[in-house]
């Protein structure tokens, strides 16, 4: 499994949601009395025009796996943690896996100690957000960046502009770390391979007032250890049967006709939850559409899997499929040795057809 490509080619019209100024911000760090809405608050920090959100709850994964890795752990211990996370199908949404050894040794934060990570991908840009552990001193992080070769900005909230040349000297790290900024108020590290993305980020965030299809489905996958969340228009392209071969497209059309009415998605989310469960949430324009699509998409999710191969029953047992307001949720119980979350996060996916 590979991390989804960082640039998204989007076909069709993108619905841009204009968010009012004056947003109330939240610190999105994990603690023992964590309130609901943790994923949603992280998504609020992403740019308004984000089409795909890839979430990894590193603190939650460490807890789920019973791992005690930390900023002081050895390379071998970190590698073992990541290997177990991969086997549990909890790390495919991360952009930091291959960067972990150098981040652990030289940056002072890595998947072994980070609170959470989100990769926000738009049509032309991508932004990586990392929730920093409360134990990490931000002055120490700044000193580490300077020692690595990032020129220190004049302002504390400025952009540290390393660029590809500095990254090449550092070693094997993602290009998303070419330019970084430290948000001290929210204890978040923001990064991108383009300086302009960071320079505009603070004034282009979604905020918490949005009530679009993304926020609707996110409410139903809170608590996710790993999640992929799509804007509705993007989901209708990325998960469509377009990339399937001719035989699979013909078979899919037959199955969709047999299943009944399906309507376009306003939002889509797939989440890996604690205890190995997977949940899917799909948003629609109305409660009536949600009730209709709960029936039709349950049929599609329990039959053949054209474009994926075989049948969905080879991957999971389908649990309850429910309409809750204008959102349909599906509970999936993955079979042993199946990678249900990472397999279904990318199309073609017949039961997510528009």
Describe the overall structure:
- The protein has helices spanning 38-43, 58-65, 75-87, 100-107, 138-148, 163-170, 195-201, 213-218, 232-238, 246-259, 287-301, 340-344, and strands at 52-56, 116-121, 126-131, 159-161, 179-183, 188-192, 226-231, 267-272, 278-283, 316-324, 327-334.
- Strand 8 (267-272) and strand 9 (278-283) form a beta hairpin.
- It has 2 domains: 45-201, no CATH class; 213-352, no CATH class.
- It has an 11-stranded antiparallel beta sheet, sandwiched between helices.
- The two termini are 25 Å apart.
- With 354 residues, the protein is α+β, with helices and mostly antiparallel strands.
- The protein has 12 helices and 11 strands.
Give the arrangement of secondary structure elements.
Elements: H1 38-43, E1 52-56, H2 58-65, H3 75-87, H4 100-107, E2 116-121, E3 126-131, H5 138-148, E4 159-161, H6 163-170, E5 179-183, E6 188-192, H7 195-201, H8 213-218, E7 226-231, H9 232-238, H10 246-259, E8 267-272, E9 278-283, H11 287-301, E10 316-324, E11 327-334, H12 340-344
Summarize the structure.
This protein has 354 residues and is α+β, with helices and mostly antiparallel strands. It has helices spanning 38-43, 58-65, 75-87, 100-107, 138-148, 163-170, 195-201, 213-218, 232-238, 246-259, 287-301, 340-344; strands at 52-56, 116-121, 126-131, 159-161, 179-183, 188-192, 226-231, 267-272, 278-283, 316-324, 327-334. The protein contains twelve helices and eleven strands.
